[in-house]
Amino acid sequence: MMQDVPEPISNLKAQSASCHSSAQTNTAGLPLVAIVGCPNVGKSVLFNALTGAYVTVSNYPGTTVEVVRGKGRFNGKEVGVVDTPGMYQLRPITQEEQVARHILLHEQPVAVIHVIDAKNLARMLPMTLQLIEAGLPIVLDLNLMDEAERLGVQVDSNALAHLLSIPVVPTSLALGRGTPQLKDQISARIGGPIEKQPLTRPPSFIQYPAVIEDALVQIEARLTGSYHITERSIALLLVQNDTDAVALVREQEGRDIEDILKIAESARARFNRPISYIIARQQQEAVQRILPSVLILPERPRARLNERISEMLMHPLFGSIFLLLSLYLLYLFVGVLGAQTLVKFLEDTVFGEHINPWVDNTLAQLIPWSVVRDLIGGPYGIITLGVRYAVAIILPVVGTFFVAFSIIEDSGYLPRLAMLIDRVFKKIGLNGRAVIPIVLGFGCDTMATIVTRTLETRRERLLSTILLSLAIPCSAQLGVMLGLLGNRSDLVTLWAIFLVGIFMLIGLLAAKVMPGERPTFYMELPPLRLPTLGNVLVKTYTRMEWYFREVFPLFIVASVIIWVGRLTGLFDLVVHALVPLVRTLGLPDQSAVAFVFGFFRRDYGAAGLYDLKPVMNGTQLLVAAVTMTLFVPCVAQFSVTLKERGWKTALAISAFIFPFAFAVGALLNWLLNALGVKL
Q1: Dihedral sign, Cα of residue 401, residue 407, residue 410, residue 413
Q2: For residue 316, how far is the Cα from the chain centroid?
Q3: CA-CA distance, 594 to 606, in Å (whole number)?
Q4: 289 exposed, middle or buried (CB, 10 Å; 0-12, 13-18, 19+)?
């Protein structure tokens, strides 16, 4: 099967925008420890243990998209530690694998900790063999040993270390078991010269077909440049037509590369299947020769309740029922508790009865200039509008959503949802893996846009970005929408149905228009786990910290901009220009102000609509909610789209969304009135 070829790593720009990631640490000049492995095996937990820094640890693939760096101290010496994105093999398919491999190729770590799931040696040891072939200083971390033991799986780590000729450390990182032993292995590798390791086994350790072996020998003999991995591993990548490897060898070998590439091309032409498949199969067979000596499986696999539940969650009927139940519980927790109960208390009691009157009275007594008073208080002041929106209307819903989302992602449900929804997503040119950025979008569209890097093809990444910008409300906006419609379950249902319809329609049309092949789908299925209270609280705290650091200041800035706009008359000018548009939606003229707010942030605009809730009927509330949900993306999301997709794509998406949102709102208003529907 043909795969979309990833961009060369040199074309990938370092991303600094993220919704909740640790501050990047400069590790230049320090000995580097690289943590590698598949998603969801405990890499981020190990990073935390080695550095003391916190990185969000989620029970689903795709969490660690950006490269996170920290510093640790071993035997009194400071060392850099890098937590790489998840990767399955040395030949990358996704951009996250590409970034992880780039670190191994170019940064020359003194130790590479390969973290694997002890329950799944057959699937994870092939990459270990590739790392050994590459001559990297490997320490194999057999993690999740506690789960393996519960299943009756026994792994002889000493025998495995002997067969592979590398250190093997059994661990249960979440419980702290084995971490000291890993640190000892790292300490043993610090201080010596950094150089690639000689192959601990002859090349026949993985015996490829004669055609491939002959090509490898010829290519190795012609490689004269300086590489951080073995020439055999470079040759294997060239035979598989790896883009980055070709660029690296072209840089090192100059003109001589043409002869090398002809050898690789000749080897590929001898097979009627992709040569990468042939190589992967031989690596898997090598693993199968190892397993009988190191692995003991229970005679009768223990039937476990969570395995049965896991199957039900992916069943078309039972999985759909559970999804609807989950959405209903999410609505009760976020939409009722957060968007109604907590918002009402903070909005009406805390700000309405205490803070805002006190601010206005204090300003009236202390400041004689109305212009200055309007900056802080009054209808559009920093405290009475900006802080009120951010704390009283947005914060309660964001907080309850972050709690709920932390529980969902820690439970392992998201990958099963991806499996369930894969067939539907195929219709719109995506696959089940895209459910990760789409669901993350309900937390933060900015973060979700970054996570689209985990998708396999450019077409999927662009499709997901369009859908995130258009039809996926972030947690802040979602919260206000639920508050706006929260006491009317019929309006919430119609709003959700309408948005799902828009999501599917735009996805179908975009998939038809955009060229490209049907996407493939693969994903790790982590075990179902009961979320731990401590992890949920820490993750919620971290995300709330992000909210106050990244989002809260934007409300203050927006209030200042509105104050300047009102002072200069520009604000009123823009509001008057939007009045005809909001009238086509059947909304009161005052709602034009909310849409002006929406240009800064959609949730800011949604909060403006919330203030108009008492003067709007059910039809107007529904039309307003749909239009604002489809409105232009926030500044942060636009900036990330600009970096990820380029300025032409970012501007084209925004230019499409603005008129489309109003056209859909006007059409919905006309349709409801034409049918005589009274809400």
Answers
A1: negative
A2: 25
A3: 7
A4: exposed
Provide the token pair at 452: 């689209």
Q: How far apart are CA 180 and CA 187, in angstroms?
A: 10
- DSSP, residue by residue, 500-553: HHHHHHHHHHHHHHS--PPPP-----PPP-PPPHHHHHHHHHHHHHHIIIIIHH
- The string over 303-318, giving b where at least 16 C-beta atoms fall within 10 Å of a residue's C-beta and e elsewhere, is eeeeeeebeebbeeee
From 1, 189, 28, 6, select the one nearest 85 (Cα to Cα): 6
Q: What is the dihedral of CA 400, 404, 409, 413, to 10 degrees?
A: -160
Burial of 350: CB neighbours in 10 Å, binned 0-12, 13-18, 19+? middle
pLDDT tens by residue, 611-623: 888 888 989 999 9
Contacts of 109 (CB under 8 A, 6+ apart): 32, 33, 34, 82, 103, 136, 137
List the domains of the chain with CATH numbers: 9-188 (3.40.50.300), 205-296 (1.10.287.1770), 314-674 (no CATH)
Q: Read off the tokens for 56.
A: 């969000």
Pair of tokens at residue 20? 């909740």
Residue 202 structure tokens: 């002859």
| pTM to 2 decimal places | 0.66
Amino acid 476: pLDDT? 66
3-class state of residue 392 by DSSP: helix
Average pLDDT (228-250) is 89
Instruction: Please give the residue that has the higher pLDDT: either 538 or 444.
Output: 538
Cβ–Cβ under 8 Å, residues 43 and 84: yes
Structure tokens, 653:
């998406």
Number of residues that make up the chain: 679
Sign, CA dihedral 558-563-564-566, equals positive
The least confident of 122-131, 212-221, 557-566, 633-642 is: 633-642
Per-residue pLDDT for 534 more than 90?
no
pLDDT surpassing 80 at residue 8:
no
- How, if at all, do strands 32-36 and 111-117 pair? parallel
DSSP 84-121: PPP-SSSS--SHHHHHHHHHHHHS--SEEEEEEEGGGH
